[in-house]
UniProtKB/TrEMBL annotation:
Keywords: Oxidoreductase. Residues 5-122 form the Gfo/Idh/MocA-like oxidoreductase N-terminal domain. It comes from Litchfieldia salsa. PANTHER family: OXIDOREDUCTASES, TRANS-1,2-DIHYDROBENZENE-1,2-DIOL DEHYDROGENASE. This is Predicted dehydrogenase. Belongs to the Gfo/Idh/MocA family. Residues 132-250 form the GFO/IDH/MocA-like oxidoreductase domain.
Length: 333
């Protein structure tokens, strides 16, 4: 096998606009099927030239031709369908957040190992080459000892659409941290090569929908670095991070969605009076698909982001929501 044959579990917009084009653009992957609960998959398959359409998720999982599935279902449904896919021998790329709790994510990872399938949570941003460059700069010591990382991921959600937006549904895993703050958590862990030991959140909770729509978060990492971030449905679009050291700073203004800027990521380094800007181009969704597909084709390859790391990310997200609930600092073991 030289090409991974993919099935898409649902007609969610991110699959149609991002992942299906990425799979089609990948050198080692192809889309062979899509499923929905009902007839929509038939229409989508025809419009996107996908060979097979199924009117239930179970039918797609029973298709022996399919090697891997992409799951962009609502957060609450991730665990159920990851486990069902694993039991059918399908490798799984699952949208973030992996689930709603660390315990559920651990169950998912355990089942995937039991059935010998690969599992990865779809934090696509990490595959863009700008972040590899940031890690190189940090390792070189150019900005000195890192003291602080700041990040923001926000957008303004149209009030008219909030009633029908799943991100505003508390029962389905709504909230800005689940949706976009999780990227800020992930990037701090990934770039600083460290895990949070405590978290404190100041949140704005919507009175009608009972989900947090804005959060201001402070974390202490196990290497002593402080991390602060904000996530929001109530602010203008921002998707950036900055790392501050004793001798300089690194800023990445299109950290999580450089694809909306023509796939161009910029790394801005300032040290004293000297400032330079480096540009990097990469199709992060395609790179993610190619990385995962390569790991499916060669079981000796290590995933950049294995399931165990997804469990750790969920532990931090859980701690954030516990901090909101208790209005206190939460320690993370």
């Amino acid at each position: 096998m030289t090409t991974v044959k993919w099935g898409i579990l649902s007609t969610a917009n991110i699959g149609l606009t991002q992942l299906i084009p990425a799979i089609k653009g990948a050198k080692n992957a192809e889309v062979v099927a899509i499923a929905s609960r009902g007839e929509k998959a038939i229409e989508v398959a025809k419009s996107l030239q996908i060979p097979k359409a199924y009117t239930s998720y179970e039918e797609l999982l029973d298709d022996q031709e399919i090697d891997a599935v992409y799951i962009p279902l609502p957060n609450l449904l991730h665990k159920e369908w990851v486990i069902k896919a694993a039991q059918k021998g399908k490798h799984i790329l699952c949208e973030k957040p992996a689930s709603l709790t660390a315990a559920d994510t651990l169950d998912m990872v355990t089942v995937c190992k039991q059935y010998g399938v690969r599992f990865m949570e779809a934090f696509m941003y990490q595959f863009h080459p700008q972040h590899t460059r940031v890690k190189e700069i940090l390792k070189s010591g150019e900005i000195g000892e890192v003291k602080l990382m700041k990040s923001s991921f926000s957008y303004f959600m149209d009030p008219v659409s909030r009633e029908s937006n799943i991100r505003m549904d508390a029962n389905m895993g709504g909230g800005s941290i689940f949706d976009v703050g999780c990227y800020c958590i992930h990037s701090s862990r990934y770039l600083l090569d460290s895990e949070p030991v405590s978290v404190m959140v100041d949140a704005i909770v919507d009175d009608t929908y009972k989900v947090e729509t804005t959060s201001f978060v402070k974390m202490k990492m196990d290497n002593g670095v402080d991390v602060v971030f904000d996530s929001s449905f109530n602010m203008a679009s921002r998707q950036e991070y900055e790392i501050i050291g004793t001798e300089g700073t690194i800023k990445v203004p299109a950290a999580f969605r450089p694809d909306v800027n023509g796939n161009v990521g910029k790394v801005i380094i300032e040290k004293g009076s000297v400032k330079r800007e480096e540009s990097y181009i990469g199709e992060q969704y395609v790179l993610q698909v190619e990385h995962f597909s390569a790991a499916v084709l060669d079981e000796t390859l290590e995933l950049l982001y294995p399931g165990e790391k997804a469990v750790l990310n969920m532990k931090v997200i859980e701690a954030c929501y516990q901090s909101i609930k208790t209005d206190s600092i939460v320690q993370i073991s």
